[in-house]
Design goal:
- The chain is built from 19 helices and 10 strands.
- The protein is an alpha+beta fold.
Length: 436
């Protein structure tokens, strides 16, 4: 009996030691659908890794960026795994704020990551973040509304076609709006869309000497087209709508068209979420005939802040969440159409995925056609399609986004918004030493 009690107490002691030694990873992430699904599947990771527990901090996109940036810049140490974008990765790697990822697992296969995406999350040929999902942007539209209006969506629509079609399929009496576009202020919200749109209009953030360009005809044309289109054919309160708000509107049947992230394709075609799932068609993001479409390049990635005391456990989690096996796991639970897209070549070569995801080919084409090294019609000194990859852009983009959101809401005029954007950007570029 004594021996039995001793063994029992010993086992209990070992369990308490094991629990005490268990590492808790605090993971900061964005409240997008694929990340919410990842949280629901976390038990699959902890079953295989009982010495690691996971705590989630899930935030709206603008708040996430602010919290994570503040934490890493001040070495706050709140988070063990960060969800960051392609904008931050090369800048933060250069600042030595991120740890390189060299131990993601023997069967991880980093060479399988799509070349455009892998280049965006690497510095000096080292991976500093692992892509959870990658995206470009494209046009999603209601085939039934187009048919009713006698319209046929081209595979590569022009802005003139989009504007005309949006007006024709708008029926405000039935709460149906021709187009939904981002209006919520933020460098990664309305300015992601508007910067990509401006590229197709021949505009740019800066000329070759870093002079801001908001006082040019190309930006005037971009913002005027956007504001007028949204006033005539957009939903009320559009200046408050970001990705998630527009997704909800589209799924509720209130948008005839939506130009946004390719990652939305699986949500708008999922009958569990979308009232119009069987009526959705896809086309490239629009163009003005100048050689650039209004499509961006982005990935949400998992990274480890430098100085982390839980780097090994953090890298183990990242290896799990961004692996081929994770894609298989999601497919087994929710079907191939719902796996995180835009990261791996093998996914786009998979016949099961091609069959389940009618948007797969267009997503890959959109990602491959986005060129961060030459994002604009005229030459520029910066890289990045829907942003300029300089540290100052985060602050500048948010200020400009606030001006353009105000123009959309009618709180200011288009001309005043452009003048304010020019002045604010010049001021910050002088402060940063780019211009005199």
């Amino acid at each position: 009996m004594k021996r039995f009690l001793g063994a029992l107490l010993g086992a209990a002691s070992l369990m308490s030691v094991s629990q005490a030694l268990a590492e808790t990873l605090t993971i900061a992430t964005v409240n997008n659908g694929d990340m919410v699904r990842m949280q629901a599947l976390t038990d699959e990771f902890t079953k295989k890794n009982p010495d690691i527990t996971v705590k989630w901090v899930t935030l709206e996109e603008n708040v996430l960026r602010q919290r994570v940036t503040t934490d890493i810049a001040t070495k706050g140490g709140q988070f063990d795994v960060l969800t960051i974008g392609t904008y931050e990765v090369p800048i933060w790697a250069k600042q030595n704020w991120l740890l390189p990822l060299a131990n993601l697992g023997a069967d991880y296969d980093a060479n399988d990551i799509l070349p455009q995406i892998r280049a965006a999350v690497s510095a000096d040929n080292k991976l500093y973040a692992a892509p959870f999902y990658g995206e470009s942007s494209m046009t999603m539209y209601r085939k039934d509304l187009f048919q009713k209006a006698g319209l046929t969506m081209p595979e590569k629509p022009t802005w003139d076609f989009i504007v005309d079609a949006a007006k024709k399929i708008t029926d405000k009496s039935k709460d149906v709006y021709g187009i939904c576009l981002r209006g919520k202020a933020g460098w990664g919200e309305n300015m992601a869309f508007l910067t990509a749109m401006s590229n197709s209009f021949g505009a740019r953030w800066f000329d070759e000497k870093w002079q801001p360009q908001f006082n040019t005809p190309e930006w005037k044309d971009t913002l005027t087209t956007y504001v007028n289109l949204m006033k005539e054919a957009g939903p009320p309160g559009a200046s408050s709508n970001g990705f998630n708000e527009n997704l909800a509107l589209f799924n509720a049947g209130k948008c005839g068209m939506w130009i946004d992230a390719t990652v939305a394709a699986s949500f708008v075609t999922n009958p569990k979420d979308s009232k119009v799932a069987d009526q959705v068609g896809f086309a490239m993001a629009p163009n003005k005939g100048l050689g650039k479409n209004a499509n961006w390049l982005w990935a949400w990635n998992l990274a480890i802040p430098a100085g982390s005391k839980k780097a090994a456990a953090a890298e183990k989690f990242i290896g799990w969440a961004t692996s081929k096996d994770y894609l298989q796991l999601v497919a087994s639970k929710d079907g191939w159409a719902n796996v995180p897209p835009g990261t791996r070549t093998s996914l786009y070569n998979n016949p099961e995925y091609q069959k389940a995801a009618p948007f797969a080919k267009l997503t890959l084409e959109s990602i491959n056609s986005a060129d961060p090294n030459q994002p604009t019609v005229k030459p520029v000194p910066y890289k990045g399609v829907q942003y300029a990859a300089i540290p100052e852009f985060q602050g500048i983009g948010t200020q400009v986004g606030q001006q353009f959101s105000a123009a959309l809401s009618g709180a200011t005029s288009i001309d005043a918004a452009l003048q304010a954007a020019q002045a604010a950007t010049e001021r910050e570029m002088k402060r940063g030493g780019y211009i005199k």
